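Box 3.1 A note on notation
Throughout this textbook, protein chains are presented in two layers. The first layer is the amino acid sequence; the second is a token string describing backbone geometry. Keep the layers aligned when reading.
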Amino acid sequence: MPHPFQSVALVGNARDPRVADCMQSLAAHLGERGCNLLVEPEVAVPLEGVRIARCPSDSFAERADLIVAIGGDGTLLYAVSLVAHRPVPLLGVNRGRLGFLTDVSPDSMLEDLDSVLEGHYTEDRRSLAAARVERAGAPTLRALALNDVVVNKWETGHVLDFQTSIDGRFVNSHGGDGIVIATATGSTAYALSCGGPIIEPDLDVWVLAPISPHTLSDRPVVVRAGSRIEIRLTDRYDSRAQVSCDGRSIGDLRQGDRLFVESSGAAVTLLHPPGYDYYRLLRSKLHWGRGGYGGEPRE
């Protein structure tokens, strides 16, 4: 019986030898399984003997049944941007550092891929946040985020003064380097380094985590996902910030602008091979449960 993933797109920075090696192995293996392969035109990895189509990545969502992202979480976030409005699932092979999203090990990727092709996997639906910057007399800037929307100060050495409101209610005035608005998925990304909590990815909440706040009382806040969050700079002539979504800048935030973060209604589906355990992933990436206080538990 043919599996549902007949066309598979491979995404990754093939200039990285580790990624290129994985891409070669995956391509050969998928070719043996009778899959059609899609890669970007600039991928220079030799893929002889495999049925392959080179096409722009923005066509992957229309042509692929599955996208395999090879690299770090940034590579998977790039793949998310390709399928945000399409029901194409993503599988992440970790060739980066932490890899909270790319959870398949290179050592087991062929076996894990076979499991997925044979229908043995867990579907993990993750919602996306929507950001927009409104400016009088200018086009509205828009972007989606799986991990986070970040407001950063534009210049080093300057304090960024801004205000937050949630669902039309004033929350706080802030001074510092900015703020991270993270989904549950993004709670283990930038927000974690700002002192935010780790949140199970299936919980429907967001985190507002100030970046290097200048008052100790300015602490992370957990709110309902889909809340209408508004950020405005306070009235200082030299205030200017940058807004980024999942690490990609969408533009600056100036006096009089308004940044809104709210529900997008869009989601992506991550696939995990059999045996996926979110807490095992946390233990692996954050080195929990190693030594002391009774040692490691039995698996």
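The mean pLDDT is 91. The longest helix spans residues 17-32.
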